[in-house]
Amino acid sequence: MDKEREPGIFFEKVVLKKCLFEIRPAKQSEIKKQVKMDFKVDNRLNDKKNVLFTDFSVVIGKEDEEMPFVLDVVVTGMFKKDDKNENMDLDTFSKGNAAVILFPYLREFISNLTLRAGFSNPLVLPPMNIAKLMKEKRIAKTKK
């Protein structure tokens, strides 16, 4: 791989695959500053190994009874290999880059959802080093 060149991968689209959101009416209406989040990344390559589907999910509030809601969200990104300008294979790309690209979409969706749900201080996920998180926890898997 030539580190001076782009990877030769197109980001085709991102879709909201799953959203389960439940407000706990008896709980406090304010969202805590420190929120426990469980992230998971699942990668799937098609048979020709030229299309990558990355599911990036987060579960919030499931284990924390003080959270005023429970949220389980999955966004899916679709990435295609540029056969004319390939510089990185999709398997390598899936081990970090795909989730890094999807995180801002996940972050924005959660902020918007909690704002529209009526919380006076919507949940804004902090900036995170997703690549480092993936290396430390090994949350990415590629299914072939």
From TrEMBL:
InterPro entries: SecB (IPR003708), SecB-like_sf (IPR035958). SUPFAM superfamilies: SecB-like. One of its GO terms (molecular function) is unfolded protein binding. Belongs to the SecB family. Pfam families: SecB. One of its GO terms (biological process) is protein tetramerization. This is Protein-export chaperone SecB. PANTHER family: PROTEIN-EXPORT PROTEIN SECB, PTHR36918. It comes from the Bacteria.
